[in-house]
Design brief:
By secondary structure, the protein is of the alpha/beta class. It has helices spanning 19-24, 30-60, 68-81, 86-105, 122-136, 138-147, 152-173, 197-206, 208-219, 251-262; strands spanning 3-4, 185-189, 226-231, 238-241, 246-250, 274-275, 281-282. The relative contact order is 0.18.
């Protein structure tokens, strides 16, 4: 059975943005382009650690009390928190924001079936990330918890949430983690052209796919070879397939994250016209 990261739906925001904007962000500043790619890459990284969670649960036979999707989110958050780097902390902050934005874009919680779904509501997933962050270090992450208006009492109880996740994962993983793992992980980037080329190139250049693959390869001892495939899927998605021991990342998801962030930016500014020697415009403006 495939474990889907997001529902199979058409990306709503893609209907509101032009193809050129989605591809190359024409008219945006260099900083806006950089921030957009960073946001999309960081959200993709959180997704990939989530799918790594499904992989570990399946391949290592990890016990799960509760919903597996919640456990996979906790594994992703815990993994990033244990890196103890500014980059990892920014990834978590971007991922929390990403869940808020997808909650609006996909109308999470609007339909009755959302409450019976395998995943928690998108907004709940955002708050769970922030709760584990402040639970792990109330000094470092108090500002983001305050930003999300998490009350003082809840911030304090988040400590116990993090302690439970931390203790549980350390206990179940201790026999599977080695200083030098021996897992075989093969990474493949499939070609993608047209409207997906910019997102596909940005995803590959970000290095997040290779980062997660290397973590699996070096840290865990898995009994089967693992494949990481990045490709065009026809939908914004990412999932772990236990039948093939494969993590699949769809370029459409990277593009979706980029569009989510772009929708929050000020309207792109048209580039200034280029004048010829005769004083006439060369080419049109956007």
């Amino acid at each position: 059975m495939r474990r889907l990261f997001v529902p199979i739906v058409v990306a709503l925001l893609s209907l509101t943005m032009g193809a050129a904007e989605a591809q190359d962000m024409t008219g945006y500043t260099k900083q806006q382009r950089s921030d957009t790619i960073r946001f999309a890459a960081n959200n993709s990284l959180f997704v990939l650690y989530h799918e790594m969670g499904h992989l570990l649960i399946d391949q290592l036979g990890l016990p799960v009390l509760g919903r597996e999707e919640d456990a996979a989110d906790n594994i992703s958050t815990w993994t990033l928190l244990n890196k103890r780097t500014e980059a990892a902390e920014k990834t978590l902050a971007d991922a929390a924001e990403g869940w808020l934005l997808t909650g609006v874009a996909y109308r999470s919680g609007k339909y009755e079936e959302d409450f019976a779904a395998a995943h928690s509501l998108d907004k709940q997933r955002a708050y769970q990330i922030v709760c584990l962050m402040v639970g792990s270090d109330d000094t470092a992450f108090k500002p983001i918890a305050n930003q999300y208006a998490i009350g003082r009492d809840r911030q304090e109880s988040c400590y116990w949430d993090y302690e439970l996740v931390n203790r549980s994962l350390k206990a179940v993983l201790e026999n599977h983690v080695a200083e030098a793992g021996n897992s075989t992980v093969n990474v493949t980037y499939h070609d993608a052209g047209g409207r997906l080329k910019f997102a596909a190139d940005a995803f590959r250049s970000s290095g997040v796919f290779d980062e997660v693959a290397e973590e699996v390869r070096k840290k865990y001892n898995l009994r089967r070879p693992v494949r990481f495939n990045a490709k065009r899927c026809g939908e914004p998605n990412a999932y772990y397939d236990p039948d093939t021991t494969e993590i699949i990342f769809c370029y459409e998801l990277m593009k979706d994250f980029m569009e989510l962030y772009q929708a929050e930016l000020p309207e792109a500014v048209a580039p200034p016209p280029v004048l010829s020697g005769a004083g006439k415009e060369k080419g049109g403006s956007k």
